[in-house]
Amino acid sequence: MGGKAAMLARLGQLGFDVPPWVVLLPQAFGEIRLKPEALRVLASGLTSLGPGPFAVRSSARAEDGAEHSHAGQLLSLLDVDPEHVADAAHRVWR
Length: 94
Fold this sequence. Notes:
Helices cover 36% and strands 10% of the residues. The protein is of the alpha+beta class.
């Protein structure tokens, strides 16, 4: 799990009001789309999150470090309809 996801989890554990979220690990991605099992897990996760729209963002461990910040340099997609989340996730991952 990357930095953003880890911090969301930590904030939730500390009792902060954190919106619901889902993480796709790198193993979920195939060459041109999400792997079939990942699609099933994502569909289930999206159902538990509500109707959307959704934000699809990266959360790689190397995005921010002690010496460099990559804020705004990586793709984030906002207002994504549920039926487009899988494709959006693959775009962000590439």
